[in-house]
Write a structure and sequence with these properties.
- By secondary structure, this protein is α/β, with parallel strands linked by helices.
- The chain is built from eleven helices and ten strands.
- The chain has one domain (7-281): Spore Coat Polysaccharide Biosynthesis Protein SpsA, Chain A.
- The protein has helices at residues 15-26, 46-59, 78-94, 110-121, 162-166, 182-188, 195-203, 211-221, 270-280, 284-295, 298-311, and strands at residues 7-11, 35-40, 67-72, 96-101, 104-106, 127-131, 147-150, 158-161, 224-228, 233-235.
- The strands form two sheets. The chain has an eight-stranded mixed sheet, sandwiched between helices.
- The longest helix is centred in the N-terminal third of the chain and has 17 residues, at 78-94.
């Protein structure tokens, strides 16, 4: 295998989830050969300060990797700025990167799959990124292969290369024709009708998201993301009260035990597109969520709702 990609981990104020994420990553077959770079954001208020300190105590005592580098922010940057700045810094140095956040459990073969896929598709400019998470089952439509493709990236454990990452225009005003073109909006929504509303909410400052801008640039470049036929990542943060991002829906997929992968180059499959679209189609609670974000009360309502569920 060619040189391994560094692993970037973004952490904030969730010590328990951070520890589980790191311990899971350490179980990967390639962990001891991989460089781990951790970006720790600073607290944004007094309530977060205690847990940020706990997280930083955890990440100062990590072993099991080829090397561990911890970068602590002195001011709160927020997830979007942290990811954009951190990935750019690392990818400029290494040429590629694998990226995780602090609430993702990974299969022991996650790093193997990510590195093999980065090497396999590196010269293929049609490929935008590699995803370690898969939201749908595709065994019946991919003819025994271990990967499939969609036109939508996923931020739950992913990887990419320097040339793709540096091609991104983070200022969507540079390409804002979509807000006036209904046909373009429909095309953007092929892999989920939540995409255009999220882009709209970012433009109007209802949300601060790097991922929707990432997905929009992927759409503009007409490129694809590689997904595993079985998910190699499981998100454990969606029921945590301190979670900032993600929906209230939990979809528990089994972790794969694959240690080799059968690749393919069938770039478009209508059944895959339909299943992706159905999975990400907005439900009633999603519409309520968009409304609450635009009212500026989403986080408060979400916190109270989760607290009510936990009490019951």
């Amino acid at each position: 295998m060619q040189g391994l990609a560094p692993v970037i981990l973004f952490v904030y104020n969730r010590p328990e989830l951070t520890l589980r994420t790191i311990n899971s990553l350490k179980e990967n077959m390639l962990a001891k050969f991989s460089d781990l770079i951790i970006y720790s954001d600073c607290h944004k208020n007094k309530e977060d300060k205690k847990n940020v300190k706990k997280v930083r105590e955890i990440i100062k005592n990590i072993n099991g990797f080829k090397s561990v580098q911890v970068i602590e922010a002195n001011v709160n940057k927020g997830l979007a700025n942290s990811v954009i700045e951190g990935v750019t810094e690392v990818i400029n140095k290494y040429g590629k990167a694998i990226v995780l956040e602090d609430d993702l459990l990974t299969s022991p073969y996650f790093l193997s799959y990510m590195n093999l896929s980065l090497n396999h598709y590196q010269s293929n400019q049609k490929i935008w990124s590699i995803s370690g998470y898969s939201p749908i089952k595709v065994d019946d439509i991919i003819n025994g292969k271990d990967v499939y493709f969609t036109g939508r990236g996923c931020s739950w454990g992913w990887a990419t290369w320097k040339d793709r990452w540096l091609s991104i225009s983070w200022n969507i005003d540079d390409n804002e024709s979509i807000f006036r073109n209904k046909q373009q909006q429909q095309q953007f929504n092929e892999y989920g009708n939540d995409l255009s509303p999220m882009l709209h909410d970012y433009k109007n400052k209802y949300i601060d998201s790097w991922a929707i801008r990432w997905c929009y640039n992927q759409f503009l470049s007409e490129s694809l993301t590689v997904y595993p036929s079985e998910s190699l990542v499981f998100n454990i943060g969606l029921t945590d009260e301190s979670s900032t991002h993600g929906s209230l829906k939990i979809d528990q997929l089994d972790l794969s035990n694959k240690n080799q992968f059968k690749y393919c180059n069938v770039y478009y499959n209508k059944d895959v597109a339909n299943r992706f679209s159905k999975y990400y189609s907005l439900k009633l609670h999603n519409y309520i969520g968009f409304f609450l974000k635009r009212m500026g009360v989403y986080k408060q309502v979400k916190y109270k709702f989760k607290k009510l569920l936990n009490n019951n």
